[in-house]
User: Which sequence fits this backbone?
């Protein structure tokens, strides 16, 4: 006889090798399907994360804009409040000055009244003098 091949066709060893190869092939196919599913799941999760990230970035941008607007409004309110406080202080100073101004006006009125009374007295004397002259004449 000649040299024998390692696995003789039709022997139990050959059929066992073929079934082992088939089992391995099936296992490999299942693993490929599983890997494929894992890859699809990973891609879907990545897409979902990217969408969430974009949405969060958009929301953050909107909130930053709102925060800028709020800060601007607060600054404007602060300026208006300071102006109102200054106006109130100015009004209070003016109000505090009123009694002194009234006293000053009363004093000036009193002086003018005295002057007017003197002028009236002077004019009466002059009128009396003029009448006396006419009476004499």
Assistant:
């Amino acid at each position: 006889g000649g040299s024998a091949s390692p696995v003789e066709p039709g022997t139990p060893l050959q059929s066992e090798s073929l079934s082992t190869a088939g089992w391995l092939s099936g296992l490999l196919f299942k693993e490929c399907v599983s890997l494929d599913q894992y890859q699809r799941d990973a891609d879907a999760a990545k897409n979902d994360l990217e969408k969430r990230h974009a949405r969060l970035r958009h929301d953050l941008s909107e909130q930053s804009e709102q925060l800028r607007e709020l800060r601007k409004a607060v600054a404007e309110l602060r300026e208006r409040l300071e102006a109102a406080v200054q106006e109130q202080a100015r009004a209070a100073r003016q109000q505090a000055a009123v009694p002194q101004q009234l006293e000053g006006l009363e004093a000036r009125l009193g002086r003018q009244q005295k002057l007017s009374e003197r002028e009236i007295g002077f004019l009466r004397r002059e009128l009396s003098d003029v009448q006396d002259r006419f009476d004499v004449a």
Q: What stands out?
A: The radius of gyration is 57 Å. The CA atoms of residues 53 and 59 lie 10 Å apart. Residues 17-101 form one domain.
